[in-house]
Automatic annotation (TrEMBL):
Belongs to the protein kinase superfamily. TKL Ser/Thr protein kinase family. RAF subfamily. Residues 69-146 form the ACT domain. One of its GO terms (molecular function) is ATP binding. This is non-specific serine/threonine protein kinase. It catalyses: L-seryl-[protein] + ATP = O-phospho-L-seryl-[protein] + ADP + H(+); L-threonyl-[protein] + ATP = O-phospho-L-threonyl-[protein] + ADP + H(+). Residues 165-417 form the Protein kinase domain. Its EC number is 2.7.11.1. It is an enzyme of class 2 (transferase). It holds the Pfam family PK_Tyr_Ser-Thr.
Length: 434
């Protein structure tokens, strides 16, 4: 049996390298890749022939973190790793390391090292649990309840070997890089590659900042970060592939339009993602429909953190960045700004969803920017708009940032409006029947 390993994280010099041969000496001879961690298995769960061997004991430093190891075995299938990472993220676990194995007879073994598992709940873990994934498949999850301590300053576990990436086709290009659809560990991924001839100190710094920010955020409405190649000459960021494309393409290139229920669903998704970013003190700084991507189920996710920044303790920034048609006036004027600049941009996005048009379509980007700061120019709200939605738009793009709502309030208002629209539709149906 051939078992090709596809680790996401450590190479052979990882903290587990001393434990590889005792557990997988037969398999390791067949593969150049390291096996999964299994560092927390108690002696009773070791293969019988190794129980009498001396296993090195690692003395972790006092500033280490408490971690758990989750082992999942099931039938192999496309996008399995993506589905499993989504499952663990949605229940609140932070994945620090992942290892995926598959066999030639279509079985899969996935090992995750996670944190954010409340210690008080660890004692109640059962050795095995069954978690149904689809109606046809079930995944057996072995939860190892022994806590293992991982040093907080360990080598970056998200580093990916560029040779494990398979490029399929280019789907977009930019001034300094290209975006490809590809595969990694048998799952579809998007690969954002920096072109070597354009890499300077500024671009390299933005690349590093983007990796740091994407590692920090795990949310179902933020495009999922899978890993990165940070060692020249291969500089790229790998994320989940969003087969639905961008909201901009849907609205402006396919000339699509959204009814009120679809609009609210997208707006609620985006609000959840942005609320998560702001809770983590991250300002996106380039929120627009082109940076909202859709998955195969129509779920909207916030993407592209190339100019995003972590807000410092002062809570203000001054650099002009973003796209003029969506940019807050204080950003255009190089005035100090904070996370409320994203709220202004969200107001423009809401208008896009409502109208299916390009903001200030009869003006150049620079003319639009001048109109916003000198004349208080805003896109015209259609007369047929729901009054509550029109009111929210007006609040989001207030000139004074302090008058704009937080995303927590925006989310609550949108959910209330969604329920109100559903009730109104139901009342209309009742009237037709009667």
């Amino acid at each position: 049996m051939q078992v090709p390993s596809a680790p996401v994280g450590h190479s052979g010099d990882s903290m587990y390298s001393e434990l590889q041969l005792p557990y997988f000496d037969d398999l390791s001879k067949q593969s150049n890749h390291p096996p999964p961690a299994f560092g927390s298995l108690p002696d009773s769960e070791l293969p019988h022939k190794y129980q009498d061997k001396d296993i090195p004991v690692i003395d972790w430093p006092p500033n280490s973190r408490l971690m758990h190891e989750i082992t999942i075995s099931t039938n192999d299938k496309p996008k399995l790793l993506s589905q499993l990472t989504s499952l663990l993220s949605e229940i609140g676990l932070n994945i620090q390391e992942a290892h995926a194995f598959s066999t030639i007879d279509n079985y899969s073994l996935d090992v995750f090292v996670v944190d954010n598992w409340a210690p008080k709940t660890s004692a109640h873990l059962k050795p095995h649990a069954i978690c149904p994934v689809t109606e046809q498949d079930q995944i057996g999850i072995s939860l190892v309840s022994n806590l293992i301590n991982v040093p907080a300053d360990l080598i970056d576990v998200w580093e990916i070997d560029a040779q494990q990436l398979i490029y399929e086709k280019q789907i977009a290009n930019g001034s300094s890089g290209d975006l490809y659809k590809g595969t990694f560990c048998s799952q579809d991924v998007a690969i954002k590659v920096l072109r070597g001839e354009h890499i300077n100190n500024k671009i390299h710094s933005e690349f590093a900042q983007e990796v740091i920010i994407m590692r920090k955020v795990r949310h179902k409405n933020v495009v999922k970060f899978i890993g990165a190649c940070t060692r020249p000459p291969s500089l790229c960021i790998i994320t989940e592939f969003m087969s639905g494309g961008s909201m901009y393409d849907f609205l402006h290139k396919q000339q699509g339009s959204l009814n009120i229920r679809s609009l609210l669903r997208v707006a609620i998704d985006v609000s959840k993602g942005m609320h998560c970013l702001h809770q983590n003190n991250i300002v996106h700084r380039d929120l627009k429909s082109a940076n909202l991507l859709m998955d195969e189920n129509g779920v909207a996710k916030v993407a592209d953190f190339g100019v995003a920044r972590v807000q410092d303790q002062s809570g203000v920034m001054t650099a002009e960045t973003g796209t003029y048609r969506w940019m807050a006036p204080e950003v255009i004027e190089h005035k100090p700004y904070n996370h409320k600049a994203d709220v202004f941009s969200f107001g423009i996005v809401l208008w896009e969803l409502l109208t299916g048009k390009l903001p200030y379509e009869h003006l150049s980007p620079l003319q639009a920017a001048v109109g916003v700061i000198q004349q208080g120019l805003r896109p015209p709200i259609p007369s047929h708009s729901h009054p509550k939605l029109a009111e929210l738009l007006d609040r989001c793009w207030q000139q004074d940032p302090s008058l704009r709502p937080e995303f927590s309030e925006i989310l609550e208002l949108l959910q209330q409006l969604d329920r109100m629209v559903a009730d109104e539709r139901q009342d209309k149906r009742k009237k037709k029947v009667s």
